[in-house]
Amino acid sequence: MPFAELSALSNFTFLTGAAHPEEYIERAATLGLSGVAIADENSVAGIVRAHARAREIARQVRERQRQEARHGMIGPPAPWPTTPHWAATPRLIPAARLVLRDGLTLTALPRDRQGWASLCRLLTLGRRRAAKGGCELHLADLLEGAAGLHLLLHPGGARDWHRQAAQLTARLGAHMHLLLRPHYDGRDPARFAHQTRQATRLGLPTLAAAAPILHRAQRRRLADVLSAIRLGVTVDRLGRHALPNAEARLRSEAEMRRLFTGHKDAVDRAAALAAGLTFSLDELRYEYPSEVAENESPSQRLRRLAEAGLDWRYPTGAPERVRAMMEHELTLIAKLRYEPYFLTVNDVVAFARSRGILCQGRGSAANSVVCYCLGVTSVSPEIGTMVFERFVSEARDEPPDIDVDFEHERREEVIQWIYERYGRHRAGLCATVIHYRSKRAIREVGRAMGLSEDILGAMTSQIWGYGGDGRLSPDRLRELGLDASEPRLALTLDLVREITGFPRHLSQHVGGFIITEGRLDELVPIENASMADRTVICWDKDDIDALGILKVDVLALGMLTCIRKAFDLLTQHRGQAHTLATLPPEDPAVYEMLSRADSLGVFQVESRAQMNFLPRMRPRCFYDLVIQVAIIRPGPIQGDMVHPFIRRRNGEDPVSFPSDELGRVLGKTLGVPLFQEQAMQIAIIGAGFTPEEADRLRRSLATFKKHGNVSEFRNRFLRGMRANGYDMEFAERCFSQIEGFGSYGFPESHAASFAHLVYASAWIKHHHPAVFACALLNAQPMGFYAPAQIVRDAREHGVTVRPVCINASYWDNTLEPDRQGRLALRLGFRQIKGVARDEADWIAAARGNGYAGPEDVWRRAGLAPALLARLAEADAFAALGLTRRDALWQAKALHSPEPLPLFARDLDGEAIHEPAAHLPKMTLGEEMVEDYAALHLSLRAHPLALLRPLLTPPGT
User: Fold this and answer.
1) What is the per-residue pLDDT across 355-386, written as a single tens digit (0 to 9) for each?
2) Per-residue confidence (pLDDT) for residue 126, from 0 to 100
3) Which of 921, 951, 924, 949 lies closest to 938 in space, CA to CA?
4) pLDDT digit string (tens) for 912-927?
5) Mean pLDDT of the chain
6) Residue 744: what pLDDT?
7) What crossing angle do the helices spanning 438-448 and 453-460 adopt, rounded to 10°?
8) In the Cβ-directed half-sphere of 277, how many Cα atoms lie within 13 Å?
């Protein structure tokens, strides 16, 4: 049995390890190792990536073996029988390095599924005790919870190491080794001899490991930079924290036998132990909650709810086609046993609606008849062109995809309900791995290398967006006054490129929940998030996707908050009760408004690019909005699909299809691929991708930003398109679109759900502009536009906007009837910079019949003088006849934090009366400047209106 490395530290021991987990597996294959145990400190966050890479290497080896069996050997045969170097298939050995508070360090290796559960529960226990990023484990925890684990005891590290080691050995010695690892300082032979004697006294066998932190020696410089970042010093001041050499790397069996001369039995034990550690992450059998209720099976319950929803959605009777679609979907869902998943989503949505929280489902499986009847989405599945099997496929055996968006201000209620219903031992949010991108890499590596902040600021100013690998051309550096050939700067740029893509820390996913039937903390460790009352697992969405674990996405969307507040205002002021499902459909006036690009504040179509495209698109029906949402995206733009589509739509070019087969996929988009599903279908139909290849392409799209591996399919795609007789120009454009989807893809299913919100927000804006502006302001921060632009747009639509008033405003912006029977918008205290909600609520609660001035507010509402000054600066006392300066003068005269009762009134004429202050009147320009300083907007005039006389040429 070849040697296996059983204690490798990856870069998921953040700012310490200098190798990706995948790189260890790839290097192990090159070195001919049988396996690698990725053992990060108190973490298993990186092991799924290594596991997935090991599976991919095994797949590639099987593929080549089949190819050689079918077509013969590639290249000349070896002169003697041997296993080819490319046939090595190392496996991941799951592990974690446990660093105890008592001082002991051990590598924990699960022997079986029970051992994995024990490791996860130990890590959960330690992580839940500590703040985010910490772990507090003790020897007593290990003694009680090590069932199914094999432990490698690291020598040293604690003052009473011998006592603790003896205590641990007495309990768990039958499944322990003492770890021998080289330090490469010239004293290893003596050290190994001493540690072997220690092992003999403890009754433990020894085991050899390189315990690498690098997969190759070339990473030594980066390892030192990581240490410098972690310690907050420059590399010049690392001292003993710097690596003395580049020897702490993954080793071959031959190297290990040379390093452990005289202790080769320890090397043999590593291989023997690895052979006995048969647990694999493939054994993790994820069980979704059964969702059995009231003696009703999940299948029976889902069918009952779907049929009841069918009657609700189609009160006059559902079309036969829709009934057939639902029956087909229910059959497929039952066959794949996904009923509990759909029931969970239904229960989450039902809870939100019981609390009056607006929500909308989206995603591939969400745009189905079943989800439409359950009320998860308001978009009829008849709108789309894709069939259900594209999303819930028996052949692919993939989990369904349903995302549910909730009001961004109230999503936390839904999250806490999920925790309460399932328990924190059964539910947790996914993690998100924060990777080094160009700007952060330049800043942190540059500081570690001793570059000044002004140089780093100049360099990062040249990076846009994700910034690729952070390459700055010599010409660009020269423009900044920097010499790219200067050794330290050149080395810094090399290190920036090397660190880009390294994990920096774990954060929480925006809303992906993992829910289990049994204990989640026996499937994956759970830890505290930095946010209060949030717990997360250590794997991200790509990891759980690789393991086939279902997640429920509970996402936040600001526009849903805006729409719900608009519905509430319509009910309050107009007596109209609306929901997303009951808005009047296909209103020509709404489409006409959008065709004029009058879409400021409208969901998804408010950007300048969308506004520019709307008059060219001129939407006339709902599916036009679906296309409008999806077309201004990197995929169609990069694939040069936008102009061909609009020319075909306008009749400038004929509508043609590359083939009849692709015509069925591209029919509704006039022969031009615009959606992610269409790109995948072109790969299958046009390029002849197998379902497995298409699935790998889809997964590469999902991880493109982190790994950038879409282009590896390019030759396969173009070769397949050519073989099937398609034009190469069309094939090139299609693949460019696929690469664009890797940056930001948009499926038809998501576009349809978003288009529904586009129509809803546009309908409210057109028919009730005051309501829309009020709701949009109350839902801030969100969208593209600042309050000043929202207010200006509302006034252009005939809405009267009234200023903040101490006697009329509340925290939120409100609506008031005007003399024409319309609604006027009253700005609320939330628009004033520095005013908190509880302070605004105090003002409204103590107002009674109104305030007489700043002192009256001070006495009755108990506000601090500083807050009164902010109200005065916002001109909130103007309705009382006080100018901004007069009100500010009175506010500044109040010194004590609260009124003193003894001096609240004039005592026998002894009060001091100050003479009236005659303050100069502010100019319009001064008033406007103060408006923007306090409110970020002004109702007096547009700033450029004051400059117009200066900007207008004489005589015009």
Assistant:
1) 999 998 887 676 788 888 998 888 877 665 54
2) 95
3) 924
4) 556 667 788 888 888 8
5) 87
6) 57
7) 160
8) 31
Helix (H) or strand (E) holding 94: strand 91-94
- Please report, as a single letter, which amino acid is at residue 47: I
- pLDDT of residue 680 exceeding 80: no
What's the CA gap between 4 and 352, in Å, rounded? 51
Sequence-separated (6 or more) residues with CB below 8 Å from residue 47: 21, 38, 92, 94, 95, 281
First to last CA, the chain: 92
Question: How many Å apart are CA 410 and CA 412, to the nearest integer?
Answer: 5
Closest CA to 580 of 414, 372, 830, 395: 372
Where are the alpha helices (H) located in 32-94, listed in sequence order? 47-71
Q: How far apart are CA 126 and CA 137, in angstroms?
A: 5
Query: CA–CA separation, 278 vs 92, rounded Å?
Result: 10
- Asked if omega into 781 is within 30° of 0 (cis), the reply is yes
Helix count (H) and strand count (E) of the chain? 40, 18
Q: Which residues contact 318 (CB under 8 A, 6 or more apart)?
A: 310, 311, 326
The two structure tokens encoding residue 702:
């999902």
Q: d(Cα 188, Cα 245) in Å, to the nearest integer?
A: 15
Which pair of tokens denotes residue 345? 């989503």
β-bridge partners, 92: 36
Q: Tell me the one-letter amino acid at 393.
A: S
Positive or negative, the CA dihedral 122, 124, 128, 134 is positive
**For residue 151, what are the β-bridge partners?**
108, 176
- Token output for 159: 């003052």
Dihedral pair phi/psi, residue 521, rounded to 5°: -75, 5
In 3D space, the residue among 323, 320, 330 whose CA is nearest the CA of residue 392 turns out to be 330
pLDDT in tens, 824-847: 999 999 999 989 999 999 999 999
Token pair of 310 as six digits: 């069918």
C-alpha radius of gyration, the chain, whole number: 33
pTM (2 d.p.): 0.84
State how far the Cα of 421 lies from the Cα of 419, in Å rounded to an integer. Answer: 6
Burial 125-147 (b: 16+ CB within 10 A, else e): bbbbbeebeebebebebbeebbe
Cβ neighbourhood burial of 717 (10 Å; 0-12, 13-18, 19+): buried
What is the DSSP secondary structure assignment for residue 619, as one 8-state letter? -
Beta-carbon count within 10 A of 218 CB: 12
Contact assessment for residue 635 and residue 746, using Cβ atoms and an 8 Å cutoff: yes
Residue type, 421: R
